[in-house]
Amino acid sequence: MQKNTGETVYHVFEKGKPGLEFTDPAKAGEAWHKAALAVDSTVIMKTPEGKAKLYAGAGDEKGQIYKELPFDNMPGAAEFKHAFKESMEREKSELSMPTSKADYPQLMTPEIGKVYEGKVVAMRENMVIQAVTDGTRTYHVEHMRTGLQFSHSGQMTPGKDLSIRYPFSANVGIVKDRMEMTTKPHEHQPRGFGGMGR
Questions:
Q1: Which domains does the chain have, with CATH numbers?
Q2: Which of 51, 86, 88, 92 is least crowded, fewest Cβ atoms below 10 Å from its Cβ?
């Protein structure tokens, strides 16, 4: 049922989660950046007259999922885009943690035939740093992100508990979420981060 609220409302939807509602386009833009990178994530705008319109969605280009931004002539588009890009820059700076030998004195590179299990502790540019515990010893492994095959970009975030296996090459790692390893296995396709906001 449509109703006249007198203001534009932005609804950010993610699969499996309740929708978020905003009247401030900037807050909606930040929430859209933080929403899951999935083809069924959307932003719906409701006009003051109660009409619903697709405001922003996600696309899939050859397996690369990316988020779309609203057209410039849509209500609140400038504020929405600005907040989206600011949130993206903040995330980049938070993930750009130092990964020098001084920070991780036992920084190792992957070896063929090995499986590395542990949490992601840092990320920078094209590298993913994982803390691996072997008995009483903890060391860190530096994985090249472009060589990792993972099912969704959300796996590549600090704090994720992963199993990364190198069965055929030290340059290609197959990633599994350790929390999901008891569920039905799914096919892993090589994917990276989708282009966001382009």
A1: 9-95 (no CATH), 107-180 (2.40.50)
A2: 51
